[in-house]
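Record type: monomer structure entry
Structure origin: computed from sequence
Chain ID: A
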Amino acid sequence: MIATCRPRNHEAPTPPPAARAHPVTLDIPDGFTCPAGMTLVPGATVNVLYRGNRWDGEGDVQIPNAPFCIDSYEASQPDATATAIGSWQEQAKPPPATSRRGVLPWTSVSWENARAACESAGKRLPTLAEWQMAFSGASGDLWPWGNTLKANRCNVANPSGPRPTGACCFTICEDWCYNVCDMVGNVSEWVSDYWDRDCYGETQVSIAGGAYGNEYFFPHTDVPNGNIQRPDPARPGCWVMSNYGLDRSGLHAHARSFGAPDDGFRCAKSVNAE
């Protein structure tokens, strides 16, 4: 689904605009373009949103992002098709991740192998701040289309599995417009952030977004978007994931060597990278 930018007031004459809380910037070298299959996302101070018991219901933190490139589509294996995920076997070194429309995304992949596949492609995993910026912009809208839940054709509440990439795309506009696909539903996506270093060191890594099997909400819970963390009985003061939602704040974690059938990823690249 292709959605248009949210309306902005272009009536004339107008007074000078007020200072924006999250101004975006395209501080990039002259002539720079992202590699094929990637989208240029502006830099900004990003309102990274957290929800769930672990954060006393809701919280956010301001994190500065430089401009970056991110895969337009969820990562796929080089030989993936619309009906086959690809021929890579987990015992082998991962091939370079690709970003292509109309193929099945790479699933059941661990954080370690996702990171290696991005590195093999000359890229890296995005940070959570970059992922949320690509999801719905700097200011923290809950969805790529705004703050109000509305029906669309994204792959959610579908137990049959992931669909080919490129079916769920939205244009985000905050002075600079960009379009990134498949960030709502389909597969959850590894990011580079660790879940809680104080509790788990670098053994548990965060995964952003909901997946094909998730509902938009869990109506049987008192948490609006289904993000639920419970105390870890083995580690007092620490939290483990129970359920996770589909909006910007959707977040859970796995061991870095584990890959679930609804786990995938996409790669990023710093603008100033060689």
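Annotation 1: The helical segments are 111-120, 128-136, 197-200.
Annotation 2: The chain has a mean pLDDT of 87.
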